[in-house]
Amino acid sequence: MTKITHIVGFIALTFGFAVNALPQTKYTSSCELLAPKSGEYEDDKAPAMTSESAYKKITAANEAYADAKYVESIAILQELIANSNDKAAVGKAIFLLGLNYREQGKYDQAKAELRRAMSSGMLGKPNEVNLRLTLAQISATQENYSDALRWMKEYFSEVINPPASSYATYASLYYQNQDFRSAICPAYLALQEGSKLTKPLYSLLFASHIELKDLAGAEVIGREMVELLPGEKSVYDNLFAVLSQRGKVQDMLALAELAYMNGMWDSETNYKQLSALYSNNQIPLLAADRLEEGVNKGIVESNEEIWRSIANSYKYAKASAKAINAYNKASSYTSSGKYDYEIASIYFNDEEYAKAIESFRSAIRKGNLRDGDAGYAYLQMGVAHQRMGQPDQAIAALERAKNYKNVSKNANAYISYIQQIESMKKELALND
Fold first, then answer.
1. Same topology between domain 266-333 and domain 337-432
2. For residue 428, what pLDDT is reported?
3. Residue boundaries of the structural domains of the chain
4. What keywords appear on the UniProt entry (predicted)?
5. Tell me, what's the pLDDT at 355?
6. Stretch 164-176: mean pLDDT, rounded?
7. Per residue in 340-368, pLDDT tens?
8. Start-end of H helices in 84-197
9. Confidence class for position 43, pLDDT limits 50, 70, 90
10. How far is CA 204 from the centre of its chain?
11. What is the C-alpha separation between 288 and 276, in angstroms, rounded?
12. pLDDT band at 20, cuts 50/70/90?
């Protein structure tokens, strides 16, 4: 078992597959080979040519065909077919004539000659069987998928130990014909038989399961594709979409982080998605880190909204210095004092009262604060002055706070508290 496990906090996503195993879905689990792996054809040998002159002509036509001199090759073959009494040579000539027409793009003529060659009985059973595959491929080139599939069915009904490529061809034809259910097993079997067309075949399997609305199966295949094709951005995007439809938020996050670590998620949308996923999974520090990295790399546009989002995440993560830096950058896009207020609140909570007071004053001076924030700014300034041992400045700030309905009651209570404390201090001093 080989695995890639990526852990983010308590979130883990494992992609694993057994060596040489293939993805098992409700559609692939019942796939069986379409032809026997072993056996022998009856009449497997083609009849030998008896005419030396015919043999020479076949050789010359073959050489012309190999050199793409199709007109020359056709002329030799037509003369041989018309005049030779060597049935074996004629059968081979008709076959080669069909191949020449195929290369010229004369597909109907090609198919006619290849069918004639197949019925001549001069090619031997293996060649006759393989001709069905050739005819299917020509029909596919013509986009006549129904005819191509007919030839493929005949091919698989007679072939022994077919190559993986023939399964791949069969799968592709079914898919092109929009028979997605039937496309799955040939694609699966092509992989099982060792086809090197890994990406196209897995993509066909994934897309077919999507078309059949089997998201669970598509997820299984998508996970395997991430293992097999870690350098392909599309496989992450496709699996991410499936996980999203299935509501697997934690898996989405782990996959997105894996894509990020492999350098696959490098767009503005990707960075925003990754940040949002961390935020939704209550990991604000990494939500902010990833988004800020995107801005610093020039991938994510730098603007007030982005820096506010970064700052808020850092604030919730209690990364005060980073939050303050981000709020300052957000502040550069507006004349409002709202971000100075946020900075002041951070300083206040961190018991840096002098800096808190300075930032509250800046927030009030700039104005355009949210409803109630100006009152809270004066109230917290008063508390900060009191905690710094500055009762007169504290009361002055609290007197200003009394003008705001949302904090006036608290301001009065705190003024009374300060006055009581100061009165007690004076009494203690007199008693000394």
1. yes
2. 79
3. 266-333, 337-432
4. Signal
5. 98
6. 97
7. 999 999 999 999 999 999 999 999 999 99
8. 87-103, 107-118, 125-141, 145-158, 164-176, 180-192
9. confident
10. 15
11. 9
12. low
Give 376's strand partners. Answer: none
Q: Which of 246, 226, 247 is nearest to 236 (CA)?
A: 226
CATH code of the domain occupying 266-333? 1.25.40
Fold of 337-432: 1.25.40
- The two tokens of residue 86 are 């060597």
Please list the residues that pair with 7 across neighbouring strands. Answer: 12
Q: Which residue in the block uniquely carries the two structure tokens 């767009």?
A: 267
pTM of the model: 0.81
Distance (Å, whole) CA 196 – CA 214: 26
